[in-house]
User: Fold DUF1501 domain-containing protein from Candidatus Entotheonella gemina.
Amino acid sequence: GQVGFHPSMAPMKNIYDRGDMAIIHGVGYPKSPRSHFRSMDIWHTCEPDTLGTEGWLGRATRDIDPNKENVLTTVSFGPALFRALALPGVPVACVDDLDNYGLLPGISEQKQRARILEWFAHLYAPAVGSGPVMDYLGQTGLDTLEGADILKEAPQMYSSSVEYPNTPIAKKLKGIAQVHLANFGTRILYCDHGSFDSHSNQAGMHNKLWVDVSEAVECFFNDLKEHDAGDNVIMLMFSEFGRRTHDNGSGT
Assistant:
């Protein structure tokens, strides 16, 4: 058989036709449990035989920056830390909205904000050295303070003629472009999109999802091209949907 793009993915087809995209399908592992939740766990930890506790990108972050010299080595765009990035002792900045990111961004008086941030630092600092758990929590708080103050500068440093669509995935990829172009030394940037877990109206739902993804990806790479900053960027997109063989009662 043949493999083709969804009809709504024309922008990504253009990237493929230029020779800038590779598609790897049929990737898996032996003895699949056919469980969506267990399969997602495996994809995020790369541990098919055991219940993994370390995200594979968390391990990559540790290897890239073993001395934790840059709290922005890895930045995650989403409401929470994704499992693939989680690793105790490895700082990862989580951003939901880059335009409003940072601790106490609404406080305009610089001295007042500085005093409050200093208070936060004193609150976290005593935990350092008081045991492995508290040591980790204390350093995480200090890393968050530092990362917040750095990341909030990215939108102010950014200028582009590319107009991204007003969609969640486009907003995330625009934020990723802003951080990359700010030259903070960030090596891994992560986001998600979905959900593709549809039980009805799949044709209409997936059409909208793939339109949003394709347009956002095209804008992202056009943005990097405009700034001559795309040659050292690789985007990996992956999806997983393990399913048990029995109907779950809601159409799947």
